[in-house]
Amino acid sequence: MNRPLRFCMITTFYPPYHFGGDAIFVQALANELVFRGHHVEVIHCRDAYRLLARHEPPNGYEDHPNVIVHGLESRFGWLSPMATQQTGRPLFKGKAIEQVLSRGFDVIHYHNISLVGGPQILTIGDAIKLYTPHEFWLTCPTHVLLRRNREPCTQPRCVACTLSYGRPPQWWRYSDLLPSSLRHVDRFLAPSRFSMEMHRAHGLELPLVHLPYFLPNMDSSREVASPPPGLAAGSPYFLFVGRLERLKGLQTVIPVFRNYPKAQLFIAGKGDYEGPLRALAAGADNIHFLGHLRRGELRFLYTGAVGLIVPSMCYEMSPFVVIEAFAHGTPVIVR
Q1: pTM metric for this prediction
Q2: Arch. (CATH architecture) of 6-210
Q3: Which pLDDT belongs to residue 222?
């Protein structure tokens, strides 16, 4: 096929309405496809971001001008993603999604669909359908297979575990909704072989193929590598990049650096667990919280770091930050 293809990406989060690496990957993929001459539209849910973040994102969209982004909003606000979480259906956004998909696409590529439409969104539209599972949402209501936010899950107790996270159980998971919806997908693109093994181990017999993440050509990046404002120079530093949540395990790393002043720890990211982490680091002059950084600032930090630290307590699919570090020749230390 010689003509440009029409792609539609469907995901809950998309920059700047996002929290982590899956949204960064979707944005990179969308922009790379447009750069190669294809037509790309993105559907995501602004209400879902506002429900979880409780504020507006810090920046606007930074995409190729030919990437068309549909940031869906409902007059019901946060009730819209909550209704999807509980029913597995795009109750308040279904018509808007159908309207976009009615434009006709060659490929519909699903990513994190948990709050933008649930399983039923897989049945909407007529195209080749691809699904990249960036987390374990297909098998785990909390997405991460971390039992009660404490240890990797080996024996599921889903209702009790979901309640321990402060979330209501998803009773649709005990119906035929998920398996019947998955039958509408042509291929599932696993970012790692481990991801394939884990999904199969949990009983999902899907047409899975291994397709690793990619990074766009850094030489053509529009953002020049530059230091974050106020960066403390000096001794060698290690780097953490990601959401500040308990499951990311940073609380096990900070005490090490409190007792090792010869190196600095730079922490790039924001999250609900930032308060306890800052309290744990209080008084340690070699531990620095940098907040949300731009792409060029992260490139600068990757290049100079002794190593990237990935201390996650949960199973990781294929952390995007690891690929970014390797692209800069930076070693990675993982749990």
Answers
A1: 0.90
A2: 3-Layer(aba) Sandwich (3.40)
A3: 57
